[in-house]
Design goal:
This protein has 5 helices and no strands. It has about 110 residues and is an all-alpha fold. The protein has one domain.
């Protein structure tokens, strides 16, 4: 698999991961859920702020979910491309932060 550049388009990364469009949607959903979980614990964190062992746990959790759906597993490189985006989207002031807060009450 060629190296994934930080500015790579989602379609390039999807193809690199070997996912169909539907499998990619499942991957995106799983990583968003993990981003929500991380931000509940550390609301101002970025992916770089997350400790290596916790990043490894996110990779393991996402891959378990993908495996259950017979979806190709991802590498840390794919996760490192996705998670800054997922966490950033949740922190945008467009009300998505309040979604994290609302989900916290549902936990």
């Amino acid at each position: 698999m060629p190296a994934i550049k930080a500015r790579a388009k989602a379609e390039e990364v999807r193809e690199s991961a070997g996912h169909s469009k539907n499998q990619w949607k499942q991957f995106m959903k799983s990583t968003r859920q993990e981003a929500e979980r991380l931000l509940r614990n550390q609301p101002n964190a970025t992916w770089i702020d997350i400790m290596d062992k916790d990043q490894g746990q996110v990779l393991e959790t996402v891959n378990l979910q993908l495996q259950e759906k017979d979806t190709p597993l991802i590498t840390m490189e794919v996760l490192a491309w996705r998670m800054p985006r997922a966490m950033g989207e949740l922190r945008k002031p467009s009300g998505t932060t309040s979604q994290v807060d609302a989900n916290q009450g549902a936990s």
